Amino acid sequence: MSEKRPPYRQLMLPYMSEGRGEAPKADLREAEARTAEPKPESPADTRQMMEVICGLGNLEKALKRVQANKGSPGVDGTTVRELPGYLAEHWPAIREQLLQGTYQPQPVKRVEIPKPDGGVRKLGIPTVVDRFIQQAVMQVLQGRWDRTFSPHSYGFRPGRSQHQAVAAAQQHVAEGYRWVVDLDLEKFFDRVNHDRLMAAIAARVEDKRLLRLIRAFLNAGVMEDGLVSPTEEGTPQGGPLSPLLSNLVLDELDRELEKRGHRFVRYADDCNIYVGSERAGQRVMESVTRFISRRLKLKVNQAKSAVAKPCERKFLGFSLSDQTPPKRHIAPKAVERFKRKVRELTRRMRGVGVRRIVRELAQFLPGWVNYFGFTQWPGELRDLDGWIRRRLRCYVWRQWQTPKRRVAGLVRLGVGLQLAWDTVKRQFGPWRAARSIALSKAMPQAYWSELGLPRLSRP
Question: Is the dihedral of CA 53, 56, 60, 66 positive or negative?
Fold first, then answer.
């Protein structure tokens, strides 16, 4: 057989006839039929879910997803690029362990990344093989569970987005619920109770092998500084399965809020409940906090939670104005994070050409505006466009350094000699000079567009 087999062919190896090189198509169709997801679902179906997970179509889809997501290697050092070759050699044994219920995941690798508002977020990076298996499990479970989740839950669900969640929150405010109970769950992913989670899974899954596998993933441990620590609670962020399990845990909260008749929107562990008055909000805050603590065994972060007007809080990077009807705009903290990033790229001591800085901005800005362009205040984006250009003119002015270079630079860009000398002689500081008539004329919006700088606002 050729060494350059496409990934899906590598996963077919367990079904290929020994010594014939390739299984007949009829055999493959029969194998896929045996492992196809049964419909409609019945209690008996949930006793054979491991066969569905190990089905060829599901595995091929999982492999493509892991390869597309890329990511760093886990504790064993195996990279995503090496994964297909590893599976070609080891998949038959791994599959047998999965079907026997004896597969044992490796510990996750602890990685800390800074949070936008300070502190660090701890991620647990599984090995690429464990990521592949988790992805295969997640695809099957999500296909069965997602339709049972609350319509008010938007996080990590197919066909749902942060923009939809913000629009739903905006609709509640427009309907007159102008106070928000903003709940922040403290270290949610680190505090999920394993026994409660497994009980919720067991209510939906009868396949003991799958239950053992998920429990093994939860208890695999964390490697940090070369030492492995046990994990007795939590679902470490970083694996494909964790978001789905978090939605299962918080589905109980969704059902309780629905039973009470609340207007709410939840995105992962970020939950906003909309009420008609501050007094009602305080009552809801107390009762829901009590429910979360006693029933879910989780903790509400009192410092980050509040009852307030929506214009005073942020939800998924947006705030809602206090006018009628309310309009969404970029939250102040999100604007400050954006400016911090641009300042980092345009800091005076970088010592690189402005064209390189524009290229780096061109990599960052489209993704940012693709999300925050959802604002209904276009003036925010126009102001940020102008601020970015001023930062760049300031950077160029510093690079020119001497009066002669500054005059020559301005003249080269079409500024008259007299205006150029007048600007230099005034000895403006770089930030003030960046707003001068001379620099604005030398480097207008068209100049930056020619260099490839994207615009945040529409022309």
Answer: positive
d(CA 304, CA 292): 16
Contact assessment for residue 167 and residue 251, using Cβ atoms and an 8 Å cutoff: no
DSSP per residue over 174-188, as a string?
HTT--EEEEEEBTTH
Q: What whole-number distance in Å separates Cα of residue 454 and Cα of residue 267?
A: 30
* DSSP single-letter state for residue 231: -
Contacts of 140 (CB under 8 A, 6+ apart): 37, 49, 52, 53, 58
Give the span between the Cα atoms of 114 and 121, in whole angstroms. 6
**Which pLDDT band holds residue 214 (cuts at 50, 70, 90)?**
very high
Report which residue type is found at 155. Answer: G
Please give the structure tokens belonging to residue 425: 């002689």
Mean pLDDT score, 424-440: 91
pTM attached to this predicted model: 0.84
Nearest to 399 by CA among 439, 459, 455, 441: 439
> Tokens 């999920």, residue?
192
pLDDT digits (tens, 9 = 90+) for 332-387: 999 999 999 999 999 877 778 899 999 999 999 999 999 999 999 989 999 999 99
Cβ-based neighbours of 177, under 8 Å, separated by 6 or more: 263, 274, 275, 276
